[in-house]
Amino acid sequence: MTTVAIVGCTHAGTFAATSILREHPDWSVHVFERGDTLSFLSCGIALWVGDHVSDPRKMFYSSPAELEKLGATMHMRTDVTDIDVAGKTLEFRSLETGDSQTLRFDKLVVTTGSRPVVPSIPGIESDRVQLCKNWDNAVQIKERAHGAKSVVVIGAGYIGAELAEQFSTIGVETTLIDAADRVLANNFDKLITDQVEERYRKHGVTLALGEKVTAFTDNADGTVTVTTTGGAYTAQFAVLAVGFLPNTDLVRGQVDTLANGAIITNEYMQASVPYVYAAGDSATVHYNPTGELDYIPLATNAVRQGALIGQNIDVPTRTYMGTQATSAVQLYDLSLAASGLTQAGADRRGMDVRSTELVEDYRPAFMLSTAPVTSILSWDPQTRLVKGAQFCSTADISGAANTVSVAIQAGFTIDMLANVDFLFQPNFDQPVYYVGAVAAKAVAEQGA
Ligand SMILES: Cc1cc2nc3c(=O)[nH]c(=O)nc-3n(C[C@H](O)[C@H](O)[C@H](O)COP(=O)(O)OP(=O)(O)OC[C@H]3O[C@@H](n4cnc5c(N)ncnc54)[C@H](O)[C@@H]3O)c2cc1C
């Protein structure tokens, strides 16, 4: 009988276990997870802080019992401490009893995910500096937020941006720090981030942008002071949200990785050693807008990659389609969504990409209400291929980012996107849907 070891069980591990057991119910599948829960939706942490979660127990979509029912042997509260890839064995230790054991496997699935980046800054080990990644962190943040007067959030990416927003809406005096000179600088271009910054200021959030943190100092009154290159900010606690690194030390040097440790896989999710598979935050993605391997830790990638492992673990069958890193966030009354490259992201990569901006109401002026949508479409001036798009409005624009995701995936040019058969109905859009309109503007700017 084939024995599979799955190491790590949040999204990639849960989807891998489920898909493997569906395809191979007779295989022996061992799942190792150091936590006592699995499948935690960390995307709900900020919403829980702001009291927008009906029941925190619903932030899990699977359980050890459910995987056991499918036939898995579950090793919860168990740390995998060593993996010998060539010898096909792993060591694991129960966090309850401290006992260690060895398992021989035929196939190994590495879904160990990622860990928060913790830069070496004096004082960062303070227990007033809080991480934001897993269920334990969620509980800590929720407890700290309750009745807190002030917080400093470090990192204005998606996670820090959402936390800062929710803290400010429950009356916590909030400072948001980032070394970049804009919020969400990796996700949106300036025309959009200016609107977000205006919302933060309106809600009393202090923005400390273009400032690098240089020290954390605990004060006798229980507060912590965060010193930056531009100032000093004191609060009851600080949340560090400055990115993630793949958790792959167990297999480092045994399979091919990127410099940051992300496991390189082929289109069947196989690592450089064919009986090793990887998915999610521990692995690379194929980023379609550049055609290159990249590291983009998102649940969207983890679930799709994890699910593919079941279909490929015996016979390579179904290929991974890659990602556009399509994503969205709600900040105050603004919905923001994006897919593929921003202009700033393309510039950072040295790519020749142009962007077209369009601001127009999403539906006709005769309706009793309407709202402007900011659309930015990025495209390659040589091939005319669509490379990315961003949308921002008080209306729901999330479907537009998904639409452009399909266009990038399918290799659409701006000309094709401008001529797609999009619906028109005044409740929903203008005679020309803003996705088609921004593409038509790009065609006009570039010339036929
Ligand atoms: C606050 C927050 C909000 C987010 N919001 C979104 C969002 O809205 N949309 C989106 O697409 N993505 C979002 N993400 C990203 C998303 O959560 C991650 O991409 C996703 O969790 C990756 O899943 P994974 O299973 O690959 O890895 P992880 O979630 O990192 O899970 C890895 C698991 O492996 C276990 N493990 C690691 N090493 C060992 C070992 N040696 N032994 C045993 N167990 C081990 C860990 O305990 C962990 O449970 C968010 C992330 C955070 C932190």
TrEMBL record:
* Classification via InterPro entries: FAD-bd_OxRdtase (IPR050260), FAD/NAD-bd_sf (IPR036188), FAD/NAD-binding_dom (IPR023753), FAD/NAD-linked_Rdtase_dimer_sf (IPR016156)
Q: Which UniProt keywords apply?
A: FAD, Flavoprotein, Oxidoreductase, Redox-active center
Domain FAD/NAD(P)-binding, first and last residues per copy: 3-306
Q: Which domain of life is it from?
A: Bacteria
Cofactor(s) recorded for this entry are: FAD
Q: Which GO terms describe its molecular function?
A: oxidoreductase activity
Key word Cell division present in the record?
Answer: no
* Name of protein: Pyridine nucleotide-disulfide oxidoreductase
